[in-house]
Amino acid sequence: MYKITLKKTLTEQVTLMKVYAPDVVKHAKAGEFVILRVDEQGERIPLTIAEANSNDGCITIIFQIVGKTTYLLNQKQTGDYIQDFVGPLGTPTSIDHLNRVLVISGGVGSAIAYPLCKALFEQHTNVELIAGFKTKSQMILLEEFKKVTNQQNFTTDDGSFGYKGFVTDILIKILEKDQKYDHVFAIGPIVMMKAVSEITKTYNIPTTVSLNPIMVDGTGMCGGCRVKVGEHMKFACVDGPDFDGHLVDYDNLIKRNQMYIEKERKDFEDIKSRGDDL
């Protein structure tokens, strides 16, 4: 059992939690994730490590309430316990020998982009950020990003904060003036990562995307998280979650991620309708 030491609401649909897991903290690096179960009957879900604090032994996770398990997780409060909390899993993001990078995040993907920006900034890489959200009310980690990036560009679909438009609009404007970036990292919705990768490919800028396909065991045994990268089939849990954005088969990835949408929707509606009876 793993104790929740802090729960904080970031937006109506996004929650931050700190979980006491010192053994996970010891080895955690940017880009890695944990797999948790809320209770003994719960499913296993992956969540990226937003922060690992060696001082208090806590792992920070940030999640969006989009399905049954995240709904149940959000019912937990400070002082409650999570059944299982396994990690760190996956391959850390490769950030060595980078002098200047552009990090692009969309929505709750900012929870993954933040530890990446922090790791890059701490090794004295020049980090420029483009972070996009649907609206101002859904924005997260703005002040945190300002502390670990050299330059920030914020966008909202409705123009309620920052630039009105998409992250790709800002990306095009930037690259039309300056293409001297060692690397681009894109983290967010699949369609966003696909669009970013198509743009950076025309400028021959190496691009890494962070994928979160359907995942069960986190060890490569189940094959649920397989993704086609170039001519090879990879497993996101052990080979990733980071991959070459110019080689990912995004269309296949989108189809696989949509396989259980209807079932998840029904389960989510059922669990919400039960409400206080849980």
User: Percent range for helical residues?
Assistant: 25-40%
Parts with pLDDT < 50 across at least 5 consecutive residues? none
In round numbers, the mean pLDDT is 91
Number of strands: 17
- CATH superfamily membership of the largest domain: Nucleotide-binding domain of ferredoxin-NADP reductase (FNR) module
Task: Name the assembly state.
Answer: single chain
Strand content: 25-35%
Q: Measured on Cα atoms, how large is the radius of gyration?
A: 18 Å
> What series of H and E elements makes up the topology?
EEHEEEEHEEEHEHEEHEHEEEHEHH
- Structural domains: how many: 2
Backbone structural class: alpha/beta
Largest sheet: 7 strands, mixed
CATH topology of the largest domain: Rossmann fold
Q: What CATH architecture of the largest domain would you give?
A: 3-Layer(aba) Sandwich
Strand order, main sheet: write it out. 12-11-10-9-13-14-17
What is the fold's blueprint, element by element?
Blueprint: E1 2-9, E2 14-20, H1 22-25, E3 33-37, E4 45-48, E5 51-53, E6 58-64, H2 68-75, E7 81-82, E8 84-89, E9 100-106, H3 110-122, E10 126-133, H4 142-147, E11 151-156, E12 163-164, H5 167-177, E13 183-187, H6 190-202, E14 207-210, E15 226-229, E16 232-235, H7 236-239, E17 242-244, H8 250-257, H9 261-274
Parallel strand pairs: 9-10, 9-13, 10-11, 11-12, 13-14
Antiparallel strand pairs: 1-2, 1-7, 2-6, 3-4, 3-8, 5-6, 14-17, 15-16
Helix pairs in contact: 2-9, 5-6
